Amino acid sequence: MTKPDILQVGPYPEWDQVPLEESFTLHRYFEAGDPDAYLNSVGERIRGIATRGELGASRAMIEACPNLEVVSVYGVGFDAVDLEACKDHGIRVTNTPDVLTNDVADLGIAMMLAQSRGMVGAETWVRDGSWQAKGLYPLKRRVWGRKAGVLGLGRIGFEVAKRLAGFDLDIAYSDISEKDYGQDWTFIADPVELAEHADFLFVTLAASTQTRHIVNRQVIDAVGPDGMIINISRASNIDEAALLDALESKRLGAAALDVFEGEPALNPRFLELDNVLLQPHHASGTIETRKAMGRLVRDNLSAHFAGRDLLTPVL
Ligand code: 8YV
Question: Quick check: pTM over 0.85?
Answer without folding.
Answer: yes
